[in-house]
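For the sake of transparency, this paper describes our internal protein records without simplification. The record that follows is passed on verbatim for readers who wish to inspect the format:
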Amino acid sequence: MSETLVRFGIIGCAEIARKLSRAIALAPNATITAIGSRSLEKASRFASANNFPPEAKIYGSYEAVLDDPDVDAVYVPLPTSLHARWAVLAAQKKKHLLLEKPVALSAAEFDTIIEACESNGVQFMDGTMWMHHPRTAKMKEFLSDEQRFGQLKSMHSCFTFCADADFLKNDIRVKPDLDVHGALGDAGWYCIRSILWATDYKLPKAVMALQGTVLNEAGVILSCGASLYWEDGKVATFHCSFLSNLTMDITSIGTKGTLHAHDFVIPYQEKEASFSTGTESAFDELVTKWIQQPSKHTITTDLPQEALMVREFARLVEAIKAKELKPENKWPTISRKTQLVLDAVKASIERGYERVEVGN
């Protein structure tokens, strides 16, 4: 029996929307129904270039997509400064919402989005793709194994890429009126999420930005890092940047084991991804050695992680439509916690690297 197709509309023709439109096409329970841009010509070019189905509707405005009764859900890849306006309107139009990250300019602004989603009974999810790869669940199994991993003591995350001159001058992610968080919002979001994921989404007590933040002339963050602290003694650090070679590492260190992944944001290969774990170690005549060599674990998948994200989102939407279930609260809760930490790191940078307590 074939799955019911959730009908997606896309508002905006951002580069990331190319990847998501392909993901919607690959997901077995989703289809592209409409695309809207600020100009009909741009939307038409985007649909043609990305092999939209011939029956997909082409609109010259975002509003037209939201007003289309054949659209069940919308994917919103607009600049962060536009999220609150269009996400709230989408929810008010009863459209389920897949929103690019960072989700908002602040947690307070995000609360406005979620209030609209909750009051209109629509599902929310942000576009953090790696969360939906089967490797992520397998890594979590190891971190939850007290016999092999023990208790988490520290977590380190890094996502950097070296942007070219055109990106650093013209990309929306370096424009203060479009994406004021810069590298912190774009790359740092993934780092913060990975740290929260490892700590079972327990918010840190406080954060302290690391000195050495790089800003462009408009004051947008191009490179930064931070330390996070929990009341039980756990610590974490992250570094994100538009100015360094591509690196996508996470390291989780427990009392008995260690986990490493070197491509956590985007796997090196679309249909498989690996991580390594180390467990027993010891001293041998004052020299550290492994009792058992670290092991590599490779997880395969039939669909790329972005299509798995779309499939899960569409599954939740269909459950609401067909079974009248309530929207799943897990995803907005995780998004909000990520935003809270991001807000605190940005505040620490602005206050001269002061320690800042994380809000609730």
